[in-house]
Model the fold of this input.
Amino acid sequence: MSALIEPRTLKGFRDYPPSLMIPRERLLETARRVYRSFGFAPIDTPALEYAEILLGKGGDESDRLIYRFKDHGDRDVALRFDLTVPFARFAAQNIGKLGTPFKRYAMGPVWRGENAARGRFREFWQCDFDTIGTTSNASDAETAVVICELMRALGFERFEVRVNNRLLLNGLLEQLGVADKAVPVLRALDKLLKVGRDKVAAEMVEAGGIAPAQAESVLDLAALTGSSDEMIDRLRRDFSANARAADGVARLAQLLEVAKAAGVPEANLRLDLSIARGLDYYTGTIYETFLLDKPDIGSVCSGGRYDNLAGLYTKQALPGVGASLGVDRLLAAMEEMGLIEGVSTPAPVLLVQFAEEHLPGYARVAQLLRRAGINTEVYPEAKKMGAQLKYAESRGVKVALIAGPDEFAQGVWKVKDLAQRQETTVAEAAVVEAVRAVLR
Amino acid sequence: MSALIEPRTLKGFRDYPPSLMIPRERLLETARRVYRSFGFAPIDTPALEYAEILLGKGGDESDRLIYRFKDHGDRDVALRFDLTVPFARFAAQNIGKLGTPFKRYAMGPVWRGENAARGRFREFWQCDFDTIGTTSNASDAETAVVICELMRALGFERFEVRVNNRLLLNGLLEQLGVADKAVPVLRALDKLLKVGRDKVAAEMVEAGGIAPAQAESVLDLAALTGSSDEMIDRLRRDFSANARAADGVARLAQLLEVAKAAGVPEANLRLDLSIARGLDYYTGTIYETFLLDKPDIGSVCSGGRYDNLAGLYTKQALPGVGASLGVDRLLAAMEEMGLIEGVSTPAPVLLVQFAEEHLPGYARVAQLLRRAGINTEVYPEAKKMGAQLKYAESRGVKVALIAGPDEFAQGVWKVKDLAQRQETTVAEAAVVEAVRAVLR
Done:
């Protein structure tokens, strides 16, 4: 026999055992359900693309991280590093057939050869939704509503979706006569939470090349607080003479109004003129989402409006708006917050196997439960009862069903509540109801 | 502006637009639901593995097809070509913590640099389930039940799961004194459907090195027909003196008995002693699944029992049994059979936008429908009604909801059945019920 090969995963990669995978599936299913409820349709694109499609889209840093190689046909290929660039390629290629507006979601793994620092994986999941082919603010408002619905559907109540609109800041910079400095100024502003006002002001002056007083104006705008109504009133007054910024204010005001009509609680959506997002890409509304009990993990769902998705591949302008759910970041937060049950089986019921001869009886009763929507596992071997119950408990099973020769003779089952360590005996016809009672 | 990059996918790869992706998601969700109902738990492994983990597992042919390259750290890495080899590596690495029996399912893309012949893609999905760490026939029986439940849940009634057990054939070969010829004889037998009895007999003699009369004995066994009960009776008699084959017969008899108790219709599960599966890997029960209306596409769900999953990575013997759903093959069949609706949106309802000022009203009513479980899209622009209805119809939307100033003044909505081209007007409070009536 040849020597064993050491079973191991690559550095920066990991397996998902059931205890991690069950929450991930639940999260993705919830996202799928919410996205669909708004009419977003699923698409998928290949993991591998021509390298030229992917390169140069996220800057030099991204290019360095791309998994790139020659395939069997000596093609220069690469693994996708996000879902946005493949979507842009997809849109350029297919939008003629699909028509606009086009609303899609996509979820899947992406690959980046990151330094495997704490929590950074080289394979991780993204989960995006976008509306393209329209500049309508209805889609910006809907994006905010989708994020709020998604967070609530995931079980969060204490969260804040923070919105801003780059038109405001761009309008202000225009007013100040430094519209051409928008990129470095926004990049500096994006660091506000991390490094504080003084350092951001300094960077705006040094890297951005604007005057200290101009930097203060920008930072004053970013620091504006109050209720949404107060802030909108104030912004309307301040920017009445600036068409660009006034448009931004009007769009934010309408977004808030539509979200309110859709039932979004005020506490879950607020204006925050300090959020900028690092990406140059965004041109209008900006979204970030914070868990109030875990602000340190950063935004768990971010996005914004952009002018043109696929300009590198097509002359057709495809404006759009969308956001991306940080799947792994959110799972890590949910785990830390105790929102993830320590369960490694999807079946809350285990049917204990007493003797092989009863397998047909076990199969019959297990199907009764499954048809009633209760996932049920039959233990495959007639091991000692203690071993079977230990197996059940270690996996997070809630109910054990037990029947040996006596029970089969009488047509009854023992229903054992594993948490309460209580046992009742019921007729076969009453098993489903008895199990339901324990699970409730 | 620089030249455009041509938007294209790699040869052998494809995008999934919504019309393909909606059925794929439905299929995978159904599989997930059925697998879970039996207590199979999800796992996931990385797309990339150390090349040494993947190489040499599927023979030279597989190795040639593997996408293999050097990563950033100059590691020899490769993309998985199936879900079984990574599962074997996962099991060897984690089974100590997870314990046995271990029931898992996994679904995801795999990559093979195939010649892109008709219908062969270089990226395709697999969807497997396995029970490892037990030799119990309860798991073999359950595997058959799972396949039947899965096929029914997918909407099929006219299908046949065909089961066999290699112990029978191995027992027969033992009886004939040519047990050492099992591998080439099985390989020849696997071609029976494709090339016919004569050519298989010839191959058994030439490549297998057995006598013509011995080949006839094997082919007589494979040709056995009759009801399951008749066949089992006959096999019990024929193999009473052969311990190995008798064990195979007993396991098949018990499998059929358990499946019957689980409610599997006789028409959906039958003995077929001619199925062999090409893989040397299998040692016991064998499963193949045929659509009676599409026999030509081959088996859509196949699997079997094996003695040792992870012998290359660990000394711990991990016997198991499982099967794999042919996702893309089944989708292609469903498409040809007209089982896939021509729908490219998950929302059966479109709210037509009459004027932007009503966006809050649209948002409110759309949420009413969503909370009632009805996926609803709001058209993002106040385009002409005809354009919006055309958009809806081209995507397969069933109901349009329309309200302009008059309707808002009266608090009513027009509910338009797009298939019947009928329209009713109802109060806002009655919209959900009216939509439900059309969708029923």
Remarks:
- Chain B touches chain A through 111 residues (CB under 8 Å).
